[in-house]
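Incident log entry.

Two folding requests arrived from the same account within the same minute. Monitoring flagged them as a possible duplicate submission, but the sequences differ. Recording both here for audit purposes.

Request one:
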Amino acid sequence: METVSSNLQGPLEGLRVLDFTRVLAGPFATALLADIGAEVIKVEPPQGDEYRHIGPFIDGESALFMAANRGKRSIVLDLKSPEGRDAALRLARTVDVVVENFRPGVADKLGIGYAALSEVNPKLIYLSISGFGQTGPMRDRPAYDIIVQATSGLMSLTGHPDGPPTMVGEAIGDLVAGLYGSWAVTSALWQRERTGRGCHIDLAMFDALLSLLPTGACRHFASGEVPGRVGNRHPLSAPFGVYQTADGHVAIAVLNERLFERLAQTIERPELVQDPRFRTDADRSANEPALRDHIEAWSGQRTSADVEASLSAAGIPVAPIQNLAEAINSNQTRDRQLFREGRLGFPVPEQPAHFSGTIRGRSAPVPALGEHTDEILADLG
């Protein structure tokens, strides 16, 4: 039998990343690379990454910084000084990847843009993350998550029809840009493996978030209409949404005729299958309020646990609405090892993919400001 080698550190062991990023989008991208074995050298200004100064705090240290910068090494460089720029250039010669998330043009002004660094390291993979990209009429506009949620159309689709546009309850614009960033870096590394050439990756938060709205985009392209908010239901299918129970709410997902027949039998309304208002998914979506009344007449008399048990027994996708603490502390989360120990014993995330032959759950040290400066500079001579 062929022996499968074990890569204990992760698929990117041996990859070296120079990280000029700050706050969340860029640090999240490089944290994902560090999670699977890359050596990430985080360059910080003398005052540190802004996230070091944003709460909540654990023993005086930012929990957000720890989560976004797990598993990295920290070096303090003043990039506005000749010595700092020289050290950055010397570091760039030794790495495979550079990631920055300054506003367009800032990295060039600091002397660490793609043109300067690729000259000293032609095989360099260089990722630039910005709000609106390196080109286009909005390139110079500053962007935070709420700005990108607003401009991408996501907020216009989120919330109830009679309510205001609503933010998603996480910094999704930052996080999806970081996720795409790590994907783009690994894709470019494979391209370099085949061609021997590095490249510059231009990634915009706006582009990344808009790419995650295919349902709304397809509705617009197909009909020419502007999709709006539909609340806690699917815009195209029914019953596919959140329903009232005696003690809360559950999510129910029915996407075909077989499941709808099972649902009708379980809620003791088998005649609904023959009702012309509910014969197809399109019919059910068009008559969703009436269908909701039938379902909630049944679910509203039962606890969420009872509804889940009954529908699960019938093979219908259903789940209670867990709060975040319940999700984090669930047996599923523990079994999947989605968090591990970071600085001060504080739990930090683990990237979600499981690679065979790679150990999960190893502690992820979070660097103090400039903790590795002397060590990294000594390695440069």
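Request two (distinct sequence, not a duplicate):
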Amino acid sequence: MKILITAIGHFFDRPSGSAKLAFDEAVELGRRGDDVWVLAPANPSLPEYELRDGIHLLRYFPAELSPWNPARACEHQRAARAVLARHVPQIDAIHGHVPLSYLGAIEFYGDSVHSCYTIHSPARMEMAIVWRNSGLLRRISAVFALPMINRLEAKCLRRSRVVTALSQYTIDCIGQIHRRELAGKVRLIPGWVDTSRFIPVADRGRVKAQLGWPTDIPVLFTLRRLVPRMGLDRLLNACHLLLGDGLKFHLVIGGDGPLRGKLEEQTRTLGLSDSVTFLGRIEDRVLPLAYAACDAFVLPTAELECFGIIALEALSAGRPVLATPVGAIPEVIRKFDYSWMARSAEAVDIADLLRQYLAGKLPEHSPTELHGQICRDYSRERVLGEFIEATVGKDAHR
């Protein structure tokens, strides 16, 4: 089969949880013998077409338009259709991971192809958060743009033969935003993790030393895009409270984003410079070691966490996940230990959770036990096959 996947970005170009799921899907389809094409917006400095590891990567470059320009969405669809016309005029199935290019593909190929759409997070909720934390013009434009985004997402749901979501939380949000009958067609298929890659290590002290981390105090690790909804400012405030209590620890923050400078300044202002390290983007080969070496992974999300692949990766590496009760996070954490959840996403409650952990007052689970449960519930081998079936249709690989 010839299959098109539309993604928020190519994982090689712009790593993210959504891009990683689309990439894993493409690799698996290619392994099964399908002709796989992945379409995503990108920087014009990159090639429009590239063959990489047997996967056809297509990039489209929409014209730069002001955020309040109503033609912005149409421009994405136009640019996507133009690239498809040049490189892949016929297709058997489409799987969309992002609405605009997916709608462009659906309109280009028509309704005769098998179509599946995966909701990673409700588009209106996602963009409302982005624009609320942007400049004045974007906040003003949101009044007009958010209803349009809502209509585009509803169109994705109606035009798709199959719709999936990663969490019940996301499905419930869709039911509130759109009609219940649209939410009723959404199938829950969770995310997954490569359990052969993210594994516990026998000597965490040795791996800490290898990474240049402290070996004499607990190391807390988090991996986030540095944007407002991730709650890193609250985590830093919580760490300030812990230092005030005289507790010893080191926080390692992986990831990059527009808030990095502001968060680094907050770190200095709070007197945390000796207790916090910003790693920036972590190399893919190093990431499993970072998870396995830390004493605990921290997930301080402030709002709209629709799944959380990073929580699965940390648990698969055998580490506890100390998290806020936001979005879909409780759906995952309650399967392991609900006492790992803060009372709220506020700094004082994050601090209280970390204080309990550092004092040894939270339940412990062996790394082998945590890894084993992830293998049973969220392994790539178990979940990805179900995801592929939705993508290409039930009988495609018989």
